[in-house]
C-alpha cells in the first residue's frame, strides 16, 4: 500500500511537467495514466473536470512471465468483460476497482496519520474502468477530492452504470421519479434540470433522394435548461453546436471531379518525392497525347485566322473541356472562364497514364513554342517552368529543356498547382467567404512544392465542407462565412486532418427540419442541486453507441428486429446512469 502511495505521487509530479497519456504499470494487474489539457477525456459525458487519473486492467506483452500472471488471484483481479475491441482499453472487475478507490480515499484523508505521509498532496480525480460484472452493471467508478482552499475536506464518489442495448421504452426512466430520487438521496428541496441531445444530420439528409452514408459525420449538439420529460425534442431557444467531420472523396459529392483532379496532383507530388509515380485512372477516355495534339492544332488555326499582323492585342480566352466537369457543380462550384494556356493544358494532360505519354505531350508543346506555331496567353505571376518557356517564346527563343528524370513530372505538377489554386481562390472569393489576403497562406509560393500541395489539400477539404453544408443543410452565406473562418484558422495552425471535428454555433431552427422527426443519437438529462463543492448531480442518458470505449456491442446503432409498443422501427439504446455521493472527513 505504501508503494502505491509513493508511486501515485511520483506519477503526479511527473505529470505536472508533461501530461502522461501513455499508461504506466501501477501494479501487476493495473495500468494508470494521467489525462489532461487538450486530451479527450473518456468520461467527458459524466464529469466536467480537467486532469484525471484513469485506471484500467494492465495488458501484458509477450515478454511477460506467464508464471507471474498465473499467481494473480482471479477471484479478485480477474474480470469477465462485456464484448470489447481487442485493441482498446480493458476494464477491471468492480471489486478490484472498489479496492483501488478505497486506497485513493485513504491517502487523501488527512485523518489517516498512521500512513505517515509527510506532505499531503491533492491528487487529480480518479476514474476506474469497470467490467459491469456486478448486478448494477457498473462501467465506471470515480472519486474526486473536495477542498476548502488547500485543505482536503472530503471525497465525491461517482458511479456510472449501463444497461442495454434495448428498444423497449418501458425500461426508460420517468423524469419525475429521477428528480424525487435525487432529492431524497441528497436531501434537497429544489433541483435543476438541463437537457442535452445529439442528432446525426448527414444520415437524414439526402442528395437526389439518396440517403448519404459515408465515413463523414455531420451532427448537432443541443443543450437547454428545464427539461419537462424524457426524450423530449429540444426547444428552439436551446443552444446548438454543429459538429462537422468530413472526409473528401465521396463519389456523390458535387466536387468529386475536382477531388479526382487533386488525386492526380498528389500522385505527381509523390512521384516527384520518391522517383516512382503511380499513375491513377485517366480522367478522360481519349489519350492525353491526342487531346494535346488536337488542342495545339486548334490554337494554330486560331492564330492563322485571327493574328493577321502577328501582334494581336486581344486575347482569346478558351475554356477548359467541359466534358470533364460534372455539370451538377455549376451552381455551387462554377467553372472559371479565364483559363490560360497552361491551365487548359492541365485539363488535357491530367489524363496522362504513363511517363512516356507525359514526355510525348511536352515534346509536342515545346516544338510548337520553338517554331512559333502558337502564341499562348498565360496569367501574370506564374513561376512555373512552362510559363517561363512561354514568356521566352514571345521573344522568339526558348532555352533547351531536357525532358528526362523528374523534370517532366515537376513541370506538370507546377501547372496543376497553379490551376487548382486559382480554382479554390475563385470559389472562396466568388462566394465572399474569404479575401485574397486571408487566402495568401494557402496559395503562397514561398514554400517548397510538397508543402504547396499539402496546403492545396487543405483548401480542397474546406471546399468539400462548404459544398456539403450548402447541398445537405442548405446553408446560406451567413452560416458559411463563420464556418470558413473557423476552418481556415484551424488549417493555418495545423496539418491536414480530415477526422478533425469543426464546430460551429448555430440556431436550432437552422437544422430543425433534419432532426425533428428523427431519433437522437444521444439524449441525456442532468439533475442537479446545490452549487460549487456541494453540488450533487444525477445524469440519465440513452445512446445508440456504448457510452464507454471498453464496452461495445454488435447491435450498436441498429434498429430493433422486433416490434416494441406497436412500432416496427424503434431505435436500440444503451441506458446509462451516473450518480454521485459525498463523504466528509471533518
Automatic annotation (TrEMBL):
UniProt-listed GO biological process terms: cell division; mitotic spindle assembly checkpoint signaling; protein localization to kinetochore
GO cellular component: RZZ complex
Database matches in Gene3D superfamilies: 1.10.287.1880, 1.20.58.730, 2.20.25.230, 6.10.140.520, 6.20.270.10
Cleaved signal peptide residues: none
Function as written in the Swiss-Prot or TrEMBL entry: Essential component of the mitotic checkpoint, which prevents cells from prematurely exiting mitosis. Required for the assembly of the dynein-dynactin and MAD1-MAD2 complexes onto kinetochores. Its function related to the spindle assembly machinery is proposed to depend on its association in the mitotic RZZ complex.
Oligomer and partners: Component of the RZZ complex.
Main location: nucleus
Cellular compartment(s): Chromosome, Centromere, Kinetochore
The name this protein goes by in its record: Protein zwilch
Entry keyword set: Cell cycle, Cell division, Centromere, Chromosome, Kinetochore, Mitosis
Similarity section: Belongs to the ZWILCH family.
